[in-house]
Design brief:
The protein is 47% helix and 16% strand. The strands form 2 sheets. Strands 1-7-2-5-8 form a 5-stranded antiparallel beta sheet. The chain has a 3-stranded antiparallel beta sheet with strand order 4-3-6, with no helix packed on it. A hairpin with a 2-residue loop joins β3 and β4. α4 runs antiparallel to α5. The longest helix has 19 residues.
């Protein structure tokens, strides 16, 4: 299946995930040097050269690659006979609760350069086993297969974290992960909202910075580095998720929902909700 077709399907209404085993016997051909619209985890069984901005890297044997959608790259294989596995997905596919662990895993997908891990025998056996199950589950008729696939992808990323060199996965990033994790934990502790009479009090990056006793600029920089998203985006996304839950599952008035989310006037909440979802709060209740 060509990349154009994959991109069309993954941006459509189907769950934003695809996986495949590939095997070629044709002459080497270079993949287009471009950005993709999805995250990619790739098990490469053959040698070749991976090129990305200002650098090329030789891949000499079985390797596990983690590729960010904003990173342009091209791969030139050396061999006529080649095979491997890949899985591609959008961020929305993995999104669940705002857990620090989830965003730590995303440190594998770096915008400035790919994560390339050379696999030894044991690591190759584990990664191949996981990919075999990913592909078979993807093509199965199992009702909850996408939930199962999320678990397999999590396991793949954990394997990647375990194989990362110490200087990448060690002390240098511990402080940043700790601050980002504290921010996400503090954000999540405000939810779910139990009563409209107790509005949330932390609504802006500076509010969280004050609680964490750090400068707001440092908080913003760390959260962006670790998670790939701004502090404001995290706050807005969590607020929208809570808004939708309250609109669907509570009988609170829209004015009450606006108040408990910290909006002084309902029309401010309406504007915020429409900006981020393209719909009005009232439309979700019809």
């Amino acid at each position: 299946m060509d990349t154009h077709h994959i991109r069309n399907e993954i941006n459509g209404q189907l769950p934003a995930f695809k996986a495949a085993f590939y095997q070629f016997s044709a002459g080497p051909s270079q993949a287009d040097y471009s950005r993709r619209d999805f995250y990619k985890i790739w098990l490469v069984n053959h040698s070749g050269t991976l090129t990305f901005p200002e650098r090329s890297v030789r891949i000499s044997g079985p390797s596990l690659l983690f590729l960010h959608p904003l990173l342009p790259y091209a791969f030139m294989p050396d061999e006529k006979e080649r095979s491997g596995y890949w899985a591609i997905f959008t961020e929305a596919f993995l999104r669940t609760d705002a857990r620090a662990e989830r965003f730590s895993l995303h440190s594998l997908f770096r915008m400035e350069s790919p994560t390339i891990l050379t696999l030894q025998d044991e690591g190759y056996a584990t990664v191949s086993f996981l990919f075999q199950h990913i592909v078979s589950t993807y093509h199965s008729g199992y009702t909850l297969k996408y939930e199962s696939l999320k678990s397999y992808i999590d396991l793949l990323m954990h394997e990647g974290l375990k194989m990362q060199p110490a200087e990448i996965n060690g002390t240098r990033q511990n402080a940043a992960f700790r601050i980002a994790g504290q921010f996400l934990d503090t954000l999540e502790k405000q939810y779910p909202i139990a009563t409209p009479m107790e509005p949330i009090v932390l609504r802006k990056p500076k509010d969280f910075a004050a609680v964490l006793a750090i400068h707001v600029n440092h908080l913003n920089a760390v959260v962006q580095e670790v998670t790939g998203k701004s502090t404001r985006t995290h706050i807005a996304e969590r607020m929208i998720a809570e808004s939708k839950a309250l609109l669907h599952f509570s009988n609170w008035s829209i004015a009450d929902i606006a108040y408990c989310l910290g909006f002084e006037y309902p029309n401010h909440f309406n504007n915020f909700f429409k900006k981020h979802t393209g719909a009005t709060p009232l439309s979700l209740r019809r």
